Amino acid sequence: MGSGGAFPAQKRLPMTHGGARGRGAPLLLRGRQINKTLHNIKITILCSFVTILVLRGTIGIGSLVTSEADAENQHLIEETNRILAEIRSDKDPSDPDEGPERFLSLNDTFSLGPRISNWDEDRKVWLEKNPQFPNFVKGKPRILLVTGSQPAPCDNAIGDHYLLKALKNKIDYCRIHGIEILYNMAHLDKEMAGYWAKLPLLRRLMLSHPEVEWIWWMDSDALFTDMVFEIPVSKYKDYNMVIHGYPDLLFDQKSWIALNTGSFLFRNCQWSLDLLDAWAPMGPKGPLREEAGKILTASLKGRPAFEADDQSALIYLFLSQKERWMSKVYVENSFYLHGFWEGLVDQYEEVIEKYHPGLGDARWPFVTHFVGCKPCGSYGDYPVERCLKSMERAFNFADNQVLNLYGFRHRGLVSPNIKRIRNETVAPLVNVDQFDIRHAARHTAEPQS
Amino acid sequence: MVGRLLGPRRARQLQRFVRNGKLTIFCLFLTVIMFRGYLGAGKFGTPEKDLDDIRETLSFIRNRAEPRRVLEEALISGQGGLKSAENAGAGSNNYAAFDITKIFRDEDDGAEEFNRDPSQPYSLGPKISDWDEQRAEWLQRHPKFPNFLREHKPRVLLVTGSSPKPCENPVGDHYLLKSFKNKIDYCRLHAIEIFYNMALLDAEMSGFWAKLPLIRKLLLSYPEVEFLWWMDSDAMFTDMAFELPWERYKDVNFVLHGWDHMIYDEKNWIGLNTGSFLLRNCQWSLDLLDTWAPMGPKGKVREEAGKVLTRELKGRPVFEADDQSAMVYILATQKEKWADKVYLESAYYLHGYWGILVDKYEDMIESYQPGYGDHRWPLVTHFVGCKPCGKFGDYPVERCLKQMDRAFNFGDNQILQMYGFTHNSLGSRRVRRIRNETSNPIAMRDELGLLHPAFKAVKFWW
After folding, report:
1. Separation of alpha carbons B26 and A445, rounded Å
2. Which residues in chain B have Cβ-Cβ distances shorter than 8 Å to A400?
3. Mean of all residue pLDDT scores within chain A
4. Pairing assessment for the beta strands A329-332 and A241-245 based on DSSP bridges
5. Using an 8 Å Cβ cutoff, are B85 and A368 in contact?
6. Is Transferase given among the entry's keywords (chain A) (predicted)?
């Protein structure tokens, strides 16, 4: 007879046993039966174990059908993720080892640079020597819009997508209004990191570009929503800083959100350099910023406990040195130089129905600022869906005003697709004169408040 | 049954043989499967994959706990805690798991829509025959919008763009952003306006053909623009100091990078590149666009045209018609009509294929300086085939992304040096100071003279 194999053995064992013994005592029979059962169970378990192993080994649990394209796809995705993780990590293999980070101690003084005291005269001389770079062009002062974001990819892809859209939005506004734009992606000063990074940047740009009359800082999460409205600079000829806020919140209530440093203008002058120097000391990372944060929380109404931020620091500076600064600061709220998004984004349909671009205020907001959404990070202060949907709406709301010249419009405020609202013609310049914001503005009398 | 046929002993032998055979086959089968399972099938459900999964999950948890990057310090836990307490239960605050495409939705706002009559053959728009006259008259009426900013310097509009939807590749948008910043920097220095397109104007002209209706629309909407400069989103400026030789082009209407002999003699499909070209705003250009468009409409037209192009052009693989091949075909077959107003530029890299340039950056830094625009210091490095926004490109992902970073930094160094900084290396995002702050900033000059270059000094450019 043949040997081995699970199944033949199973068949044979009872035979051998039964054949050898014949008619034995019932107890012995019972024992034999138990043995048999045990043996069978053992074999069954062994076989099932082998089967499972084999099945798992070849088919796996979950992925039942494998094809080469899927495998390649999977491989590519994994490789991209690995490279992504490498790109996102702060570690740079080519960077020299910087050693442990040293923070300024509480006794150190921080300065943005060597003290400059006659910038107004120097600048005047430079402008005279360089007439090809005037600070007033076509009767308007030269403005430089400055914005920026981190040099590394955002924590999530959607963050970079909205940075891209926000930049396009700013480029569109600046092209229509003749404003130069600079997008910064470098950390110029390691100590002034985070929201403080704008201070060394603004100082450097002011000093490098004497031909710029106004520097306009704008956060990367702020979008233009009124493409027609132009800042009434003539209103500010006696001021050096224009910032959105509410004087009563500032002086009476000392609220930490009385002003907003997400969108403000600075004149290129000595006064501004002095302000930056006075503003900077609360900024340096480490114990200085922590301590400053505590002072600010104690002094300003409603401020939570966290390290010093530039906005609270500026408010504190204006409150404690009111006589020195406030005469040259215009706290603007007649239009939304900064417009907090939550109260604005749901009104867009109503706004379109009732009003027209060019107003810049609550009727048609100039800027919609997505404070707290933080799409470039991992977590925002608001639900993600609300933030992203609102940002998409604001972007399309503004984009419609740009596309109008070309005869197109978005298919709704949450749609990336467009539809044609005006046929092509053989005399396109008629439409250009009527719909181009730069030309149309000459024909209609826009109220300059 | 077999037993009856062969006899009892034979039958038993046969039975035994069959049984053994079954056993052998079965065991062989098991062995093969086991081997395949552990060595051959790779990662599909093997215990090794389990270990990998476990490792991945653990590292993900670890990453979540790591401190956030520097710029995200804004309004940390204190304020965050306040706000999220108010919004508890209103939805997730985590951006990682969110799918943006579920937000996008087409809606009808009641505005009348105009569509092209599909029964008519495709055209970009009604034929205009007097554009030069229309434009000249308009320019006369608008003296504040001249088409020349200075003698010999035309008003230029640089046009680029990308999809309004997020990239399929998670890091694609970041590279689009960097590429956009790079173009903004060059254009700011050279008094060039930028238009970034994110709209598909014509669904029939999709993909690489989308630029045609866009270019026509922009030429007609901006009569003050003298030259329209189309540039692909995957092309970057690497020479910030190079100003285009506008005088060279005063008698031509279309400037592309390429070689005459490769087009007119060889009909080589890569004899020119439509990733970066100049087109004058005039009747000739409108006519060219009208001649160019017919191979574009999606579907059968594009497929058939693709076959014609593969047949007629040298070296072209089989795929649907693309705008570049179509242009080669037009120039090669209608030379008498177009060639005298077309300039195939090869003296500098109006388009520079990245494969031959990116490894040489360090050599260039050592031996030359910005301003040449050619092989010594290329004006444009064009990442043809990389497709950072899509999932699959023609080249390995790692090489593409790393080289794009290097090209970006190579160009960015020229901008940063204006302000006294430079990248730590071509592969590094970090910057270091190369010039100290001074108490006499007026006297400061940047090495390349890019702060106030002659080509930026124009009377007005808006």
Report:
1. 93
2. none
3. 86
4. parallel
5. no
6. yes
The residues, any chain, with a CB within 8 Å of residue B352's CB and separated by 6 or more, are B238, B257, B378, B379, B380, B381, B382
- From the list A4, A160, A210, the residue facing B173 with the nearest CB is A160
Are A278 and A371 in contact, with CB atoms under 8 Å apart? no
**DSSP reduced 3-state for A267:** strand
Best of B56, B75, B139 to mutate (most A CBs within 10 Å, chain A): B75
Residue A92 has pLDDT above 60, yes or no: no
Can you read off the two tokens belonging to residue B245?
A: 């030789």
- In the chain, the amino acid numbered A135 is N
pLDDT tens string B108-144:
888 888 888 888 889 999 999 999 999 999 999 999 9
Cα torsion B433, B438, B443, B445 to 10°: value is: 0
Contact call for residues B156 and B458 (beta carbons, < 8 A) = no
pTM of the model: 0.82
Given a contact cutoff of 8 angstroms between Cβ atoms, the answer to whether B431 and B424 are in contact is yes
Testing the interface with B: which of A12, A424, A431, A438 to mutate, by most B Cβ within 10 A? A424
Q: Are B287 and B391 in contact (CB under 8 A)?
A: no
B397 token code pair: 């992902």
Q: With bands split at pLDDT 50, 70 and 90, how would you rate the model's confidence at B258?
A: very high
Quick check: ipTM above 0.95?
A: no
Question: Looking at the complex, does the CB of residue B293 fall below 8 Å from at least one CB of chain A?
Answer: no
Of B106, B126, B401, which has the smallest distance from its Cβ to A426's Cβ? B126
Cα–Cα distance measured from residue A426 to residue B133, given in angstroms and rounded to the nearest whole number: 13
Q: How far apart are CA A406 and CA A425, in angstroms?
A: 11
DSSP one-letter string for B48-105: HHHHHHHHHHHHHHHHHHSPPPGGGGTT-HHHHHHHHHHTTTS---BSTT--GGGT--
| Interchain contact, B111 vs A436, CB within 8 Å | no
Interface of B with A in 337-396 (CB under 8 A): 391-392
Chain A CB within 8 Å of residue B318 CB: no
Residue of chain B whose alpha carbon sits nearest to that of A380? B93
Which residue type occupies B191? Answer: A
Interface test with A, best of B16, B128, B177 (most A CBs within 10 A): B177
φ, ψ dihedrals at A50, nearest 5°:
-60, -45
Q: Specify whether the CB–CB gap between A184 and B188 falls below 8 A.
A: no
Structure token pair of residue A437 = 């914001």
**Crossing angle for the helix pair A68-88 and B397-416, nearest 10 degrees?**
30
List chain A residues with CB under 8 Å of B420: 204
Q: Provide the 8-state DSSP code for A365.
A: B
Q: Which of B113, B424, B462 is opposite residue A421, by nearest beta carbon?
A: B113
